[in-house]
Amino acid sequence: MSEYLTTREVAELLRTSESTLRFWRHIDRGPNSFRIGKRVLYDRRDVEQFIEDARAEGSSGRALA
């Protein structure tokens, strides 16, 4: 079974703010997320893939944001 992370946990992992994650969701950027009721959750594998993609884009000289 997958491990699911809260917005706070993902923000800590990415060293960014929860409001940045909310903004990224609003503009359809950042790691994939989903809702269960009022909670926004992230699959740890999606967050790890987001980090790998950002690393690859960063090494090509293009910024993610």
Model description:
Residues 4-53 form the Helix-turn-helix domain. The protein has 65 residues and is of the alpha+beta class. It has one domain. 51% of the residues lie in helices and 17% in strands. The chain has helices at 7-14, 18-26, 44-59, and strands at residues 4-6, 34-36, 39-43. Strands 1-3-2 form a 3-stranded antiparallel beta sheet. β2 and β3 (39-43) form a beta hairpin. The chain is globular and about 40 Å long. The mean pLDDT is 91.
Write a concise keyword list for the protein shown above.
3-stranded antiparallel beta sheet; 17% strand; alpha+beta; 65 residues; globular
Label the overall shape. Answer: globular
What pattern of helices and strands is seen along the backbone? EHHEEH
Radius of gyration, taken over Cα atoms and rounded to an integer in Å: 12 Å
Number of domains: 1
Number of helix segments?
3
Helicity, as a percent range: 40-55%
**Strand order, sheet with most strands:** 1-3-2
Percent strand? 15-25%
- Average pLDDT: 91
The count of DSSP E runs of length 2 or more, i.e. the number of strands, is: 3
InterPro entries: DNA-bd_dom_put_sf (IPR009061), HTH_17 (IPR041657)
Protein name: DNA-binding protein
Pfam families: HTH_17 (PF12728)
GO molecular function: DNA binding
